[in-house]
Amino acid sequence: MTYLIKLYPEITIKSRSVRQQMTRCLTSNIRNTLKRHDEGVRVRGRWDAIQVHLSPDLDPARARDAESALTRISGIHEILAAEEIQVDDLASIAEHVVPLWSPEIAGRHFRVKAKRRGQHDFSSMDLERYLGARLLEAAPDAQVDLTAPNVVVPVEITHNRLQLIRAKWPGLGGFPMGIQGQVLSLISGGFDSPVAAWRMMRRGVKSHFVFFNLGGPAHEAGVREVTHHLWQRYSASHNVHFISVPFEGVIGEILKTIPDGLMGVVLKRMMVRAASRIAERAGIPALVTGDAIAQVSSQTLSNLALIDDASPMPILRPLLTEDKQAIIDQARQIDTARHAEVMPEYCGVISKRPHVKADPAKVAEAEADFDFGVLDAAIEEAVTTRSNRLLERPAPVSDDALLVIDSPEALGSVEAPCVIDIRAPHEREDAPLELDRIPQLQIPFYELQERAPALDTDHHYLLFCDQGVMSRMQALHLMDRGLRHFGIYRHP
């Protein structure tokens, strides 16, 4: 099968040299992507279109996969499935075009659009008029409309070869991947950050990913899945990197040293500081986030300016003025919503009274007490994985393996139970956990991973937090490390 790849209109209006550069880039991207489906694929760039030839003996299922992949390559406006047929005159052209298109134009307005190359004894207008008349004979309830047709019947003749268009699909649009350089996208696995990264990809920007791990292996496994999905579907022509930064120590330092109302802004400042250093080492010139104005307290205009101030490189925000529902709708369109819908909402620091307009002087004063050695250590412990190996990581422990206790009465069924309250100190003070005759320990979640191995293995330790999200992630993290005597206590 032969396919004609039409360039996105914004490419066609560029200068000749830029258009040629983008066409070469797109040709290479198509070849790199389709080789996964057909080793024998041939791709040839032309001025007005790119020709793709799949192997004639390719399995039909693999051919359909290749067609689907073409619709997700940035820079493509339209994909036309074409067949080359030898023709001699107007009648032989109509013999092939009319049976194919007459059902499509029945009861609708149409026009014929012809392109010719070579010497013929008829003009393009002659061809359009002749085919239009023959199509009207075959579909009497159709009407010709040259200005606003419902259907355009494309006909391309090169010398004595007719390119017969059998089907067409819309492309992704945008610019060829890599033509606009590269960025480092902060990704969390929710609705926003994957959509932000996808929008950059569509505009031709090669996107690497950095993930700040706040919830252990289970959290990371979910983010790896959505990142792999984005890469495989929309930028498989390029290998990129996924950098996982262990950030629990940073969370602990924030909770120890930063005033309540400033914690959210400071956390974001620490993230962009770390991301900027990682990007600088890799020669990446900009960061991308999924921030949208006023979506949460750290995303007010004044707080975003404070966060920008912590980064020496530009922070791009492609969702800045989008409504949340529009972001969710686009997440469904690119098929990342299904990941976000099962990803626990997890934030390492939740201020009771967050500042929507944090004072820069107070932020600077608060950060003066922060031990930046903790941030340095997190950056040094970051792990980089190539995009084509993202799913090779061992699967995390299943939730089914966790011991979950839902009531004080059920605690009696556990041998040697001990409840560990993993909330931050101020949360414990505001809402003390009261249990009769059940031992309790108070270990903030940001200290638990370090202290857990030293706890007496004769007890079954049940982790408690207000929403159950943090306790679940911490318990899964401990079980992943081989500590099987930890579970969850959920207070009714």
What does this 3D model show about the protein?
By secondary structure, this protein is an alpha/beta fold. It folds into 3 domains: 2-170, VC0802-like; 182-392, Rossmann fold, CATH 3.40.50.620; 399-489, 3-Layer(aba) Sandwich (Oxidized Rhodanese, domain 1). 39% of the residues lie in helices and 21% in strands. It contains 17 helices and 19 strands. It has helices spanning 9-12, 16-34, 60-70, 90-105, 124-138, 192-202, 216-234, 248-257, 263-282, 301-309, 324-333, 337-340, 360-367, 372-380, 425-430, 445-451, 469-480, and strands spanning 2-7, 42-45, 49-53, 76-86, 109-117, 143-144, 151-158, 161-170, 182-186, 206-213, 241-246, 287-288, 315-316, 383-386, 404-405, 417-421, 440-442, 460-464, 486-489. The strands form 3 sheets. An 8-stranded mixed β-sheet has the order 2-3-1-4-8-7-5-6. It has a 6-stranded mixed β-sheet with strand order 13-12-9-10-11-14, with helices on both faces. Helix 17 links the parallel strand 18 and strand 19 (486-489). Helix 4 crosses helix 5 (124-138) and helix 8 runs antiparallel to helix 9.
Strands, helices and their partners?
Blueprint: E1 2-7, H1 9-12, H2 16-34, E2 42-45, E3 49-53, H3 60-70, E4 76-86, H4 90-105, E5 109-117, H5 124-138, E6 143-144, E7 151-158, E8 161-170, E9 182-186, H6 192-202, E10 206-213, H7 216-234, E11 241-246, H8 248-257, H9 263-282, E12 287-288, H10 301-309, E13 315-316, H11 324-333, H12 337-340, H13 360-367, H14 372-380, E14 383-386, E15 404-405, E16 417-421, H15 425-430, E17 440-442, H16 445-451, E18 460-464, H17 469-480, E19 486-489
